[in-house]
């Protein structure tokens, strides 16, 4: 009974985002951690992400039934009624936003709202089905959780927050493209315009290589800008160049599916490792200038 209500929230994605929330939060904390704020931020963001995922699953029922990977999902099987699904998604979202509003700050709430609107509104409702740029727009939503974690502490969108946004946005492109390659038949069957389907696997390999190079530069900028230390820099360089070398083997591989699945698995290892390293190897920076002070209208 309960299991279907857990599965419909995409626990794997929630867990992955939780790691990046903690990474952003601890990076901004710079050693002085407010654990009650951390707990509220983790739960609040997880509830908002869960809400977004339930809405996404509700919206995607018609295409999920066409893909091997998703055809057995809870809503495709009709295990939860549409009305209950919508109510459940709303309750998760209300609880998450209320928690963030009560215990964090308006800037964090605004980034949660941004991530939610981009994921459910722009990506799920429209771009995923209509545009090859859906993944690029979707990556903005996936970059929201670590920025929420960071801003829950900093209460300002400074250079550190911007670098986090860029790191996580760039990371998601090879992550998603690798999936789109090893799940190529699924996306073709569901007519989802991901890059490999629209422009071919060779072009996608070029994009993957360029995005990983951009990702490496962005990850190193955290240390160069004084937000993270040299242990983080070393690990970021090893992980980034390891991922790049793995990507480059794609130009010689005889089996794109196996190569892409390895690249996807490495993407999870990469982002998890970096989230941990930025949590433990921050550096004491002077109070950074705010780049962007969102004000609530
Ligand atoms: C443009 C953004 C993203 C896209 C299009 C995307 C797409 C996907 C897809 C389709 C899967 C299922 C792969 C499979 O099972 O074959 C997946 C798995 C996964 N993704 Fe992403 N993802 C994105 C962002 C993220 C973010 C931001 C995180 C966390 C930081 C994340 C973490 C994971 C994890 C942990 C898995 C494996 C667990 C699972 O399959 O549920 N992804 N991703
Ligand atoms: C604050 C907030 C709500 C942030 C959103 C965090 C989040 C869920 C990021 C993932 C973004 C994304 C495009 C996932 C793929 O969805 P998909 O529909 O392509 O995946 P699927 O085919 O497995 O359903």
Can you give keywords for this protein?
disordered C terminus; UbiA_sf; mainly alpha; globular; cell membrane; about 300 residues; membrane; single chain; binds farnesyl diphosphate; binds protoporphyrin IX containing FE
Describe the structure.
With 297 residues, this protein is mainly α. Helices cover 76% and strands 2% of the residues. The chain has a two-stranded antiparallel ribbon. Helix 3 (35-59) runs antiparallel to helix 7 (134-154) and helix 7 packs antiparallel against helix 8 (159-182). The radius of gyration is 19 Å and the shape is globular. The N and C termini lie far apart (42 Å). Residues 293-297 have low confidence and may be disordered. Bound molecules: protoporphyrin IX containing FE and farnesyl diphosphate. Protoporphyrin IX containing FE (HEM) binds at residues 10, 12-13, 16-17, 20, 69, 135, 138-139, 142, 172, 175-176, 179, 183, 268, 271. It comes from Limnobaculum xujianqingii.
